[in-house]
Amino acid sequence: MLDQVEAFFALLERFKRYWRKKAQPPEPETLAGRFLRLFAAHGVHANQIPRFFGHGLALRDVQSAQALARCLTDEHLAAACELFGVRRSWLERGEGQAHEVHHFYLQPEGFGTFLDALPALRQQQGEHMWAKLFMAGRGARNEESVLLLEEPVGELNEDVIYRRHYIDAGPLSYWKARVSTTALLAQLLRRKVWVQGRECEPGWVAKLFQTKDLLTVQDLDDLYTRSHRVEVDDWLLEPDALLEGIDPERNQFGAQSALQLWLDLDARGLMRMEFTRPDTRQRFEERLQRVFSTAAS
């Protein structure tokens, strides 16, 4: 009987220690901890950092955040931010999102200038870059979409490590956002950057891109597997593909406006790419006339 009582109190004490530990707030992440997490998020294990990153770091320096904190320098921080394109304020203080989200709403020329400044495209290696347009399912009218660019920065054991660039693509059911994003896709395709559209479950784009400060390789793989492919380059070639999923609005105003804006941008040479057919503009003009006729009837 005494043994049972002792066992009960021993078990009770373990439960108390467990709940006391559970109730304690988590220790704040350190700068060195974020440095290690930054590399892990891009597919570089801590033990691979000295070989991949260099800058005088040795294996003994990356075995823990405490060990790394003793040797991190301003040079290491600047080089890591440059390598992965992250914000210095995030790495140093853990503030906000790691990556800046770029905005080129109705500014395709500005996006082209941005692309031409990327090292991979300065070296005319667009074919080694990837672009993925993650968009909400077509039943979700107001959800934001994200255009993700992946720029190669090195290899590890035959795996390519990428720097990421995030571009706001807006809610693609809205006609102006759809056509604006289409013009961005044309800028990519003209530079031989392969583009893939991915239609995701409602809520998943916002969940990942708005609630996590730093996406991991696994996060993006999960988003990819929970989505299906959409031929977004058809928005540059087929008027019906451009209009699919757009809110037509009252009296077909959304459809009319989408086609008219597409034609306006095409007149400036911003909707052309390698596979544009000679009659493409004519087919968009004819589709616009049919929309006008439908709205008038």
Any key phrases for this structure?
297 residues; 6-stranded mixed β-sheet; elongated
Brief digest:
48% of the residues lie in helices and 15% in strands. The chain is an alpha/beta fold. Helix 7 (108-116) runs parallel beside helix 9 (175-190), helix 9 (175-190) packs parallel to helix 13 and helix 13 packs antiparallel against helix 14.
Please give a structural write-up.
This protein has 297 residues and is an alpha/beta fold. The protein has helices at residues 2-23, 31-41, 49-52, 65-69, 74-84, 88-93, 108-116, 119-122, 175-190, 204-211, 217-225, 239-243, 253-267, 280-296; strands spanning 101-103, 130-136, 145-156, 159-170, 194-200, 227-230. The longest helix is centred in the first third of the chain and has 22 residues, at 2-23. The N and C termini lie far apart (91 Å).
SSE arrangement:
Blueprint: H1 2-23, H2 31-41, H3 49-52, H4 65-69, H5 74-84, H6 88-93, E1 101-103, H7 108-116, H8 119-122, E2 130-136, E3 145-156, E4 159-170, H9 175-190, E5 194-200, H10 204-211, H11 217-225, E6 227-230, H12 239-243, H13 253-267, H14 280-296
Helix pairs in contact: 7-9, 9-13, 13-14
Query: Which class best fits the helix and strand makeup?
Result: alpha/beta
Largest sheet: 6 strands, mixed
Helix and strand run: HHHHHHEHHEEEHEHHEHHH
Shape: elongated
Mean pLDDT: 89
